[in-house]
Amino acid sequence: MNKKTLLAAMMVALVTFAAAGCSSNQEIKTTDDRTIVTDGKPKVDSDTGLVSYKDAHTGR
Predict the structure, then answer these.
(1) What is the pTM of this model?
(2) Per the database entry, which stretches of residues form a coiled coil (predicted)?
(3) What is the spatial distance between Cα 13 and Cα 21, in angstroms, rounded to a whole number?
């Protein structure tokens, strides 16, 4: 493998890992001591104060 091919492969791997790191899971601790793992950052409705999220395990 020449240097240009190796460098290109390393750059593709770096970009792939960087993009995967952008969408991190978050944990929500409930008042009854349960922990919910979300897919991305939960959103808070400014009118009602309710939190909406996508569950990391079920995708809902």
Answers:
(1) 0.50
(2) none
(3) 12
Amino acid at 58: T
Instruction: For residue 8, give Cα distances in angstroms to 15, 23, 50, 55.
Output: 11, 24, 46, 36
Domain-wise residue ranges, the chain: 24-60
Gap between the Cα atoms of 59 and 16, Å rounded: 22
Query: Tokens in use for 37?
Result: 């793992």
pLDDT tens per residue, range 15-53: 777 665 566 788 888 889 899 988 888 899 999 999 898
Residue type at 47 in one-letter notation = D
Q: 47: which residues sit within 8 A by CB, 6+ positions away?
A: none
Q: Give the Cα separation of 15 and 41 in Å (integer).
A: 22
